[in-house]
Design goal:
By secondary structure, this protein is of the alpha+beta class. The protein is 54% helix and 10% strand. The strands form three sheets. A four-stranded mixed beta sheet has the order 2-1-4-5, with no helix packed on it. It has a four-stranded antiparallel beta sheet with strand order 6-7-3-8, with helices on both faces. Strands 9-10 form a two-stranded antiparallel ribbon. The longest helix is centred in the C-terminal third of the chain and has 23 residues. The N and C termini lie far apart (71 Å). The relative contact order is 0.08.
Length: 463
């Protein structure tokens, strides 16, 4: 075996991309990884001229692989799944690493996927990179994020460690409580599709000296899009769907953040949602005009005039929330967010007619837990209590339809503790399911405790 073969085998053995172990084995493996990284990890470069070596460090790659696996996601144009990538890397990593370090790695085109927007306003185009490209993007993102994140504005909250949409909403609430009762709500039209590649690469080149990494990022931007079997070139934009796109979007809009800070504005930005708070409508109109001009001329982006506005904060939504009027400013759930929740519950409970109650409850509980985890941040518990009661009514009506005949309905009510007289009267009623969902018989037989025993999640813990 020659020296080059020995070197490749050594790299392959040190980077064992086998399946992730579970339980105690996983913990032991993690401790082993951490201890090895302390002993064998080369010292991180002091500058950014050899940042590709840092990206290819063992600990960084292990972390990237774990993240890609946990994110799951669809396969790209090569149809490789997240479950297959470990074995593929175990076999091919030495040559991939060599391409990265030589600056010759070529990403594959992204797969175009269209998903409907939550508000029904058309579709959002996603670009799904291959799992291998997602793994490499994740490794790049982790290193760049560690270096860039401390330099970003404190009023930028999207896609950053230890920051969330809740932090952004709380900051906006604070501005309003301080008397800034007008908001400039900026919406950037098709932001992720319109990012200028040359301008973006210029921004990256100010922070990164390693020519190989600059070439790799440019290759990801220009990889193209496969749609209906045809590959189209990418001349602008950072396709949503790759791990690197959110970080690059923050870099693009960091120039906007700095301009707003330079002017002394009070603002909050989460990805391409940017709100600026001022004390008067006149000031708002003036800021809207000047900032729109800056975005168009300096950032080469376009403000969506139809969706942008100068208004009272109570008239606009921000990240799914609204704010109440009056001296005590509270966070509340935006009407559109409430309607989307109700529509999803309607869809789930309509399907209950043809599936078991267990299947319905599992889907319902999963959705409601996630929804509560985000919108439970509101300060209007009465809304959450009312929604939980409404969900129970939907379930009672769904079960009533599922039982179909008066005989089955009477038997089901009696089995659930309803008196024979009440069960017979209710089962023989000519009223509709939604009306009967409020009846004493269904409230008793299908009680709150009954739904809780099936796993129904309350949107407000004490209700």
């Amino acid at each position: 075996m020659n020296l080059e073969s020995n070197k490749r085998l050594n790299i392959q053995l040190r980077l064992d991309f086998s399946s992730t172990p579970t339980g105690e084995a996983r913990q032991a493996g993690r401790e082993d990884i951490e201890s090895l990284s302390v002993v064998h990890e080369p010292e991180r470069p002091a500058n950014t001229s050899r940042i590709m070596e840092e990206i290819c460090e063992r600990a960084n790659l292990k972390q990237a692989l774990r993240q890609v696996r946990s994110n799951k996601g669809s396969a790209g144009v090569d149809r490789m799944t997240v479950d297959q990538v470990g074995d593929y890397l175990k076999q091919h990593w030495p040559s991939i690493r060599e391409q990265l370090l030589n600056g010759t790695y070529e990403p594959k085109p992204v797969r175009r996927v269209e998903i409907p927007k939550p508000d029904g306003g058309g579709v959002r185009k996603l670009g799904i990179p291959t799992v291998l490209d997602r793994f490499i993007q994740q490794a790049v993102m982790q290193v760049l994020q560690r270096q860039w994140n401390p330099t970003f504005s404190q009023y930028s909250y999207g896609f950053r460690p230890r920051r969330s949409a809740h932090h952004a909403v709380a900051q906006a609430q604070q501005y309003i409580a301080q008397g800034h009762g007008w908001v400039i709500d900026l919406d950037l039209e098709k932001f992720f599709d319109r990012v200028n590649h040359d301008k973006l690469m210029g921004q990256i080149a100010k922070r990164v000296e390693d020519k190989r990494l600059l070439k790799l990022i440019r290759a990801f931007l220009n990889a193209g899009v496969m749609e209906n079997g045809l590959v189209s070139p990418s001349v602008e934009g950072t396709p949503q769907g790759g791990p690197l796109s959110p970080l690059l979007s923050n870099l693009v809009l960091d120039e906007l953040d700095r301009e707003l800070e330079r002017r002394g504005h009070r603002f909050v930005r989460y990805a391409d949602d940017c709100n600026i708070y001022v004390r008067s409508e006149r000031a708002g109109q003036r800021v809207m005009e000047s900032i729109s001009r800056f975005i168009t001329q300096k950032l080469k982006l376009k403000v969506n005039e139809a969706k942008s506005a100068v208004a009272r904060p109570q008239e606009r939504k921000f990240l799914g929330f609204c704010f109440t009027a009056g001296p005590d400013i509270k966070r509340t759930i935006a009407p559109k967010s409430l309607e989307r929740f109700k529509q999803r519950i309607r869809d789930i409970t309509r399907r209950a007619k043809g599936v078991s109650i267990k299947t319905t409850m599992e889907e319902l509980a999963t959705y409601m837990r996630g929804w509560r985890g985000y919108f439970g941040f509101c300060e209007t518990p009465e809304v959450l209590i009312a929604l939980t009661r409404w969900v129970r009514l939907r379930l009672r009506a769904a079960l009533w339809r599922q039982w179909k005949t008066p005989r089955r309905r009477r038997a089901a009510l009696i089995a659930n503790g309803v008196s024979e007289w009440a069960a017979r009267n209710t089962a023989g009623s000519g009223r509709g399911p939604w009306y009967l969902a409020r009846s004493r018989a269904l409230s008793t037989g299908l009680s709150n405790a009954y739904f809780k025993s099936l796993g129904l999640t309350s949107l407000f813990q004490s209700c």
